[in-house]
Structure formats: structure tokens, C-alpha cells
Design goal:
The protein has about 230 residues and is an alpha+beta fold. The protein has one domain: Glutamine Phosphoribosylpyrophosphate, subunit 1, domain 1, CATH 3.60.20.10. About 35% of the residues lie in helices and about 25% in strands. The chain has six helices and ten strands. The strands form two sheets. It has a five-stranded antiparallel β-sheet with strand order 8-1-2-9-10. A hairpin with a 2-residue loop joins strand 3 and strand 4. Helix 2 packs across helix 3. The longest helix has 22 residues. The chain starts with 16 loop residues before the first helix and ends with a helix.
């Protein structure tokens, strides 16, 4: 039987191989780390210049979804962009209907509902990405990871991509529940830097954060990134 070819057919030991393949595809992405602090949440992403002709300044790994939510992904770029656009549409529709910002977990659940549908129908394939969603709402800072299976998990800190495992080791060693946002940014950058082949620079890191005071997601400027790199001693 072609258990590994069918999207919706379980193997005798209860596995959906196409979903597992999608998760493996996501693991091939560049490293990404998320850290939740008491006053905000941050996503730190690695950027690589795979060719001297690439304009690395135009590479985008972290995206604004709504004013209070940012997201990143590892895996197939085209799949990830579709889900980012879908998330933005959900946020706009929610604000139009209810007159308020969308809760972070509700947005994550809606995205995962779509991802799950693509695991149970023939003629389609699962999304080959894992999403990291970071935001602040009335219940505080939130960090979620959405997998190709449609499952989502809330994390205090997590790592994704090729260097995700090694980055998680750094997070497990140094994460504290009482971390301020600036400390979380430093830890996220340190975790990503620990798996990079070369020295991290303002060109090879992308950082997006949202704080509880403003509930506004923004990307750090090169000047801000340089200051954090100096604090890390790199």
C-alpha cells in the first residue's frame, strides 16, 4: 500500500507519512527562535546569503500580521507566505466584524484549522512549514508554534529549523520566567548566534518584538541590532 503517497491514509502503525515529510521539510529551514518575556515577546530569525548576488537586505523572515502580532516560519517560503497572508486576512476580518484586535490564540487556532484540513483530503498536500506566532493581547504576551499537522503549542521559548535543537539547549539553560523583553531579545539572539556558521551581524539577523506597554509589533532597526550584538560581545 502507498501509505507514504496518500495524504489521508494511515499506515498500520498509525502514522501519516505526508505529514511527517512536511515536518521534515520545515526542519530544513533556517534557524528561528522565539522567547516570551514578562513584558513582551520576541522572534529572532537567521538570514543566510546563499549567493553573492542575493540582496540580503530584501530577505524577510519575520512578518507583521496585525498591529499586535508578528510571525515567522521555517520551511517552504511559498507555503509560509500563503499562511502569513491568510493570517493577515483573518486579523482584518476580525477587526472589521468585532471592532477590536484579534486574540493571539484565536488567530493561531484558525490558522491551524486550515493547516489540518490539508492533512485529510486527497489531491492536496500538507503545508511544508512550521509557524511561530508571537503577540500581545489582553491576556498578556503569547508565543505559539503551529505545526504542519494543525497542532499548536504555547511556549515560553522555542527554537525551529536546522539549528532548532541546539538553540533549544541554550534556551533551556538560560531562560528565566522573570525575563524582561530586552533580556529575551538578547537570549534569542544568543541562541540563534550559537548555531550560525559565521559571526552574526545586523545583516544576518532579523528581530521582531511586541511589548505589553504599546501592544505594537515592530522590527528592530540595524542600529538597535548593533547595540544588542555589542552587548553579546560579537
Amino acid at each position: 500500500m502507498g501509505y507514504d503517497r496518500s495524504t489521508s491514509m494511515f499506515s498500520p502503525d498509525g502514522r501519516l507519512f505526508q505529514v511527517e515529510y512536511a515536518m521534515e521539510a520545515a526542519k530544513r529551514g533556517w534557524t528561528m527562535v522565539g522567547v516570551r518575556a514578562v513584558d513582551g515577546v520576541v522572534i529572532v530569525a537567521e538570514k543566510r546569503k546563499t549567493s553573492p548576488l542575493i540582496d540580503i537586505g530584501q530577505l524577510e523572515k519575520v512578518y507583521m500580521v496585525d498591529e499586535h502580532i508578528g510571525a515567522g516560519f521555517v520551511g517552504f517560503g511559498s507555503d509560509g507566505r500563503i499562511l502569513i497572508d491568510y493570517a493577515r486576512l483573518l486579523a482584518v476580518q476580525y477587526r472589521f466584524v468585532y471592532g477590536e484586535q484579534i486574540p493571539v490564540e484565536y488567530l493561531t487556532r484558525q490558522i491551524c484549522d486550515l493547516m489540518q484540513v490539508y492533512t485529510q483530503h486527497g489531491g492536496v498536500r500538507p503545508f511544508g512549514v512550521t509557524l511561530m506566532i508571537a503577540g500581545v493581547d489582553d491576556t498578556g504576551p503569547k508565543l505559539y508554534v503551529a505545526e504542519p499537522s494543525g497542532q499548536y503549542i504555547s511556549y515560553k521559548a522555542h527554537g525551529l529549523g536546522q539549528g532548532g535543537g541546539q538553540a533549544i539547549e541554550v534556551l533551556q539553560r538560560e531562560y528565566r520566567d522573570d525575563m524582561a523583553l530586552d533580556d529575551a531579545i538578547l537570549l534569542g539572539m544568543k541562541a540563534v548566534a550559537s548555531v550560525m556558521e559565521g559571526k552574526p551581524t545586523v545583516e544576518t539577523l532579523e528581530v521582531g518584538a511586541v511589548d505589553t506597554a504599546t501592544q505594537r509589533f515592530r522590527k528592530l532597526s540595524k542600529e538597535e541590532l548593533q547595540k544588542f550584538l555589542e552587548k553579546l560581545g560579537v
